[in-house]
Amino acid sequence: MNISFMAHSLKKLKTNCLTLTCLLILPMQAFAFDSGEIEVTGQGSVVITPDQFSLTLTITERGRVPSKLKALVDKKSNSVISAAKNLGIRGTNITSARVNLRIVEERPSIQVQGIELNRARQGSVFIDGQSINQQSSNVNDHKKPLFELSRQIMVGFNKIDDYDSFLEQIIKLNVSHISSLSMTVEARGEYYQQALLQAISHAKQKAQRMSKQAGRNLGEIVFIKEMSSNHYSPMYAEAMMSDTSPKVHTSQVGSQTITARVSAKFRLKD
């Protein structure tokens, strides 16, 4: 009897606990429905092809006389700008004002750690046309520093074909450095607005499915927040061509995806 009584008590206790748990949960669920709102997120994307391109190249010369270096750099710079204008590129798409001049630290061509001379033959050893005594006293006064002068030129293109033609020309000019190609979209703001509208529609579709599953009807939108920003990082592509190739390489720009995200809140109707 005792065992049967204990089993019956445990069963009754379990039933009471289950009932108490339901009572605790149900008010929370009722409160969620009483709020009469549902909040969701949405995302939209637009795939586009870049239509604006820019290339930055550097012309560098080294020497002892800055004025001569400037003349050499100016000559190459003019050739680069002429090559761009011959392709129909407007002057507003060419920037060539950034110039840099620095002193290059040179390492001595001969490093002498120790030397021994007889006094009678002193002065019979020459380096760079001077005796050791003369050179040790005059080398710091007469040797001019080594300068490096460089100029950066940035050229913008509206067509990728112009970039290929321009690259073919400037390689012949022996420029010092050619950067990667930057690719952007001119009407990016308009495409982002399209993606934003898609994100709102996506949020509404999600809210409709969720409210239907909950047995409610979806009402008007009461709150919307943009979760993304129209911030853009330009894409880059390596500029690669080969003079030994029997066929000239044609650059391919590919595509880009502009994405927008929103958070939206809708009313629920019975």
From TrEMBL:
It comes from the Bacteria. GO terms for biological process: DNA damage response. The keyword Signal applies. Keywords: Signal. Residues 1-32 form the signal peptide. Pfam families: SIMPL (PF04402). This is SIMPL domain-containing protein.
